[in-house]
Amino acid sequence: MKIISTNIAEARIINWKGKEVPTGLFKFGVDKGIFLGKEDVKHDNVMDRRYHGGIDKACYLYSADHYQYWQNLYSDLEMPWGMFGENLTVEGLYEKETNIGDTFKIGEAVVQVTQPRQPCFKLQFRFSDNNIVRQFVDSGFSGVYVRILEKGHVNPGDSMKLIDKKQSLSIHEVYTLLYADEFNEKVKEAINDPLIAESCKSDLIKRWGDYL
Questions:
Q1: CA proximity to 161, closest of 96, 100, 99, 92
Q2: Which residues, in sequence order, are CB contacts of 68 under 8 Å at separation 6+?
Protein backbone atom coordinates (compact mmCIF):
# COMPACT_ATOMS: atom_id res chain seq x y z
CA MET A 1 0.00 0.00 0.00
CA LYS A 2 1.16 3.53 -0.70
CA ILE A 3 0.16 7.01 0.43
CA ILE A 4 -1.11 8.90 -2.62
CA SER A 5 -2.04 12.15 -0.87
CA THR A 6 -1.78 13.77 2.56
CA ASN A 7 -4.72 16.09 3.24
CA ILE A 8 -5.80 18.74 5.72
CA ALA A 9 -8.68 21.21 5.85
CA GLU A 10 -9.30 24.86 6.39
CA ALA A 11 -12.41 25.46 8.47
CA ARG A 12 -15.53 26.33 6.48
CA ILE A 13 -19.05 27.37 7.39
CA ILE A 14 -21.99 25.65 5.72
CA ASN A 15 -25.66 26.56 5.97
CA TRP A 16 -27.69 23.65 7.29
CA LYS A 17 -31.43 24.17 7.74
CA GLY A 18 -30.92 27.87 8.39
CA LYS A 19 -28.03 27.38 10.80
CA GLU A 20 -24.36 28.12 10.25
CA VAL A 21 -22.38 24.94 10.89
CA PRO A 22 -18.55 24.76 10.92
CA THR A 23 -16.90 21.83 9.14
CA GLY A 24 -13.43 20.46 8.46
CA LEU A 25 -14.67 18.15 5.69
CA PHE A 26 -13.16 20.14 2.83
CA LYS A 27 -9.69 18.64 2.81
CA PHE A 28 -7.08 19.11 0.08
CA GLY A 29 -3.65 17.68 -0.53
CA VAL A 30 -0.49 19.20 0.95
CA ASP A 31 2.83 18.25 -0.65
CA LYS A 32 4.82 18.72 2.55
CA GLY A 33 3.00 15.86 4.26
CA ILE A 34 1.20 15.77 7.60
CA PHE A 35 2.06 14.97 11.22
CA LEU A 36 -0.08 12.35 12.96
CA GLY A 37 -0.58 13.26 16.60
CA LYS A 38 -2.23 11.21 19.32
CA GLU A 39 -5.64 12.88 18.95
CA ASP A 40 -5.58 14.51 15.54
CA VAL A 41 -3.52 15.55 12.55
CA LYS A 42 -1.41 18.64 13.19
CA HIS A 43 -2.75 21.79 11.47
CA ASP A 44 -5.94 20.01 10.43
CA ASN A 45 -9.25 21.57 11.46
CA VAL A 46 -11.45 19.16 13.42
CA MET A 47 -14.62 21.11 14.14
CA ASP A 48 -16.88 18.60 15.89
CA ARG A 49 -14.97 16.39 18.29
CA ARG A 50 -18.04 14.43 19.22
CA TYR A 51 -17.59 12.55 15.95
CA HIS A 52 -14.05 13.26 14.70
CA GLY A 53 -10.62 13.31 16.25
CA GLY A 54 -9.69 11.97 19.65
CA ILE A 55 -7.67 8.90 20.60
CA ASP A 56 -9.75 6.37 18.64
CA LYS A 57 -10.32 8.50 15.53
CA ALA A 58 -7.14 10.53 15.28
CA CYS A 59 -6.72 10.04 11.53
CA TYR A 60 -9.01 8.98 8.68
CA LEU A 61 -7.83 6.92 5.70
CA TYR A 62 -9.66 6.38 2.42
CA SER A 63 -8.75 4.25 -0.56
CA ALA A 64 -7.63 5.91 -3.79
CA ASP A 65 -8.95 2.79 -5.52
CA HIS A 66 -12.55 3.75 -4.65
CA TYR A 67 -12.41 7.10 -6.43
CA GLN A 68 -13.24 5.61 -9.84
CA TYR A 69 -16.48 4.16 -8.43
CA TRP A 70 -17.55 7.63 -7.31
CA GLN A 71 -16.35 9.31 -10.48
CA ASN A 72 -18.61 6.97 -12.44
CA LEU A 73 -21.57 8.11 -10.33
CA TYR A 74 -20.60 11.79 -10.43
CA SER A 75 -18.98 12.12 -13.83
CA ASP A 76 -19.28 15.92 -13.94
CA LEU A 77 -17.83 16.49 -10.48
CA GLU A 78 -14.16 17.25 -9.90
CA MET A 79 -12.78 14.91 -7.26
CA PRO A 80 -9.46 15.99 -5.77
CA TRP A 81 -7.78 13.72 -3.23
CA GLY A 82 -9.32 14.38 0.17
CA MET A 83 -12.83 14.46 -1.32
CA PHE A 84 -14.18 12.22 1.43
CA GLY A 85 -12.56 14.14 4.26
CA GLU A 86 -9.68 11.71 4.56
CA ASN A 87 -6.30 12.76 5.92
CA LEU A 88 -4.56 9.98 4.01
CA THR A 89 -5.54 8.78 0.55
CA VAL A 90 -4.13 5.27 0.25
CA GLU A 91 -3.55 3.08 -2.78
CA GLY A 92 -4.40 -0.57 -2.10
CA LEU A 93 -6.51 -0.10 1.05
CA TYR A 94 -9.60 -2.34 1.14
CA GLU A 95 -12.19 -2.57 3.90
CA LYS A 96 -12.75 -6.32 3.42
CA GLU A 97 -9.03 -7.00 3.97
CA THR A 98 -8.52 -4.64 6.91
CA ASN A 99 -9.44 -5.83 10.40
CA ILE A 100 -10.10 -4.09 13.68
CA GLY A 101 -6.78 -3.85 15.51
CA ASP A 102 -4.55 -4.28 12.46
CA THR A 103 -1.37 -2.25 12.93
CA PHE A 104 0.53 -0.46 10.17
CA LYS A 105 3.74 1.50 9.81
CA ILE A 106 3.12 4.64 7.74
CA GLY A 107 6.09 6.93 7.26
CA GLU A 108 7.34 7.70 10.77
CA ALA A 109 4.03 6.78 12.42
CA VAL A 110 2.51 3.53 13.66
CA VAL A 111 -1.28 3.34 13.54
CA GLN A 112 -3.96 0.85 14.59
CA VAL A 113 -7.33 0.33 12.90
CA THR A 114 -10.31 1.15 15.14
CA GLN A 115 -13.52 1.46 13.11
CA PRO A 116 -15.19 2.33 9.79
CA ARG A 117 -16.27 5.88 9.07
CA GLN A 118 -19.99 6.57 9.47
CA PRO A 119 -21.01 9.37 7.11
CA CYS A 120 -22.84 12.45 8.32
CA PHE A 121 -25.00 14.99 6.53
CA LYS A 122 -22.05 17.28 5.82
CA LEU A 123 -20.82 15.00 3.04
CA GLN A 124 -23.67 16.21 0.85
CA PHE A 125 -22.12 19.68 0.80
CA ARG A 126 -18.93 18.33 -0.77
CA PHE A 127 -20.94 16.52 -3.45
CA SER A 128 -23.80 19.02 -3.75
CA ASP A 129 -26.17 16.05 -3.57
CA ASN A 130 -28.20 14.91 -0.58
CA ASN A 131 -28.20 11.33 -1.91
CA ILE A 132 -24.49 10.88 -1.22
CA VAL A 133 -24.88 9.81 2.42
CA ARG A 134 -27.13 6.88 1.47
CA GLN A 135 -24.88 6.05 -1.46
CA PHE A 136 -21.84 6.10 0.82
CA VAL A 137 -23.50 3.64 3.21
CA ASP A 138 -24.63 1.35 0.39
CA SER A 139 -21.22 1.34 -1.30
CA GLY A 140 -19.47 -0.40 1.58
CA PHE A 141 -16.51 1.91 0.97
CA SER A 142 -16.35 3.35 4.47
CA GLY A 143 -12.68 4.10 4.79
CA VAL A 144 -10.81 3.48 8.03
CA TYR A 145 -10.25 5.37 11.27
CA VAL A 146 -7.05 4.71 13.21
CA ARG A 147 -5.52 5.46 16.58
CA ILE A 148 -1.90 6.59 16.65
CA LEU A 149 0.43 4.25 18.53
CA GLU A 150 3.54 6.18 17.54
CA LYS A 151 3.36 9.78 16.39
CA GLY A 152 5.16 10.85 13.27
CA HIS A 153 5.34 12.55 9.89
CA VAL A 154 3.77 11.01 6.78
CA ASN A 155 4.55 12.13 3.23
CA PRO A 156 2.97 11.41 -0.14
CA GLY A 157 4.71 8.37 -1.58
CA ASP A 158 5.34 6.74 1.80
CA SER A 159 4.50 3.06 2.09
CA MET A 160 1.85 1.66 4.43
CA LYS A 161 3.18 -1.64 5.77
CA LEU A 162 1.23 -4.17 7.82
CA ILE A 163 3.16 -5.05 10.98
CA ASP A 164 0.48 -6.88 13.02
CA LYS A 165 -2.59 -8.70 11.63
CA LYS A 166 -5.52 -9.43 13.95
CA GLN A 167 -7.99 -12.31 13.52
CA SER A 168 -10.92 -9.98 14.17
CA LEU A 169 -13.88 -8.63 12.23
CA SER A 170 -13.04 -6.68 9.10
CA ILE A 171 -13.89 -3.04 8.70
CA HIS A 172 -16.44 -4.07 6.07
CA GLU A 173 -18.10 -6.51 8.47
CA VAL A 174 -18.39 -3.91 11.22
CA TYR A 175 -19.73 -1.35 8.74
CA THR A 176 -22.38 -3.84 7.63
CA LEU A 177 -23.40 -4.50 11.24
CA LEU A 178 -23.92 -0.78 11.86
CA TYR A 179 -26.48 -0.49 9.04
CA ALA A 180 -27.95 -4.00 8.72
CA ASP A 181 -31.70 -4.57 8.82
CA GLU A 182 -31.40 -7.79 10.82
CA PHE A 183 -29.39 -8.70 13.91
CA ASN A 184 -26.23 -10.75 13.43
CA GLU A 185 -24.41 -12.58 16.23
CA LYS A 186 -21.19 -10.93 15.03
CA VAL A 187 -22.39 -7.79 16.80
CA LYS A 188 -21.43 -9.49 20.08
CA GLU A 189 -17.96 -10.21 18.74
CA ALA A 190 -17.58 -6.59 17.67
CA ILE A 191 -18.60 -5.01 20.97
CA ASN A 192 -16.34 -7.38 22.92
CA ASP A 193 -13.29 -6.54 20.85
CA PRO A 194 -11.03 -4.46 23.13
CA LEU A 195 -9.47 -2.70 20.12
CA ILE A 196 -12.65 -1.36 18.53
CA ALA A 197 -13.33 2.36 19.00
CA GLU A 198 -15.56 3.16 21.99
CA SER A 199 -17.83 5.31 19.83
CA CYS A 200 -18.36 2.47 17.38
CA LYS A 201 -19.07 0.06 20.22
CA SER A 202 -21.62 2.50 21.61
CA ASP A 203 -23.32 2.85 18.22
CA LEU A 204 -23.57 -0.93 17.86
CA ILE A 205 -25.08 -1.24 21.34
CA LYS A 206 -27.51 1.58 20.61
CA ARG A 207 -28.53 -0.09 17.33
CA TRP A 208 -28.80 -3.66 18.63
CA GLY A 209 -29.19 -3.34 22.41
CA ASP A 210 -32.49 -5.23 22.49
CA TYR A 211 -30.71 -8.32 21.13
CA LEU A 212 -27.71 -8.30 23.45
A1: 92
A2: none
pLDDT of 46-78, one tens digit each? 766 666 789 999 999 999 999 999 999 999 999
The answer to whether 136 and 69 have CB atoms below 8 angstroms apart is no
For 56, 60, 139, the CA distances from 208, given in Å and listed in that order, are 22, 25, 22
User: Rounded to 5 degrees, what are φ and ψ at 155?
Assistant: -115, 155
pLDDT at 16 over 90: no
pTM metric for this prediction: 0.95
Residue 17: Cβ within 10 Å count: 6
CA pair distance 89, 105, nearest whole angstrom:
15
DSSP helix/strand/coil, 8: strand
DSSP 85: S
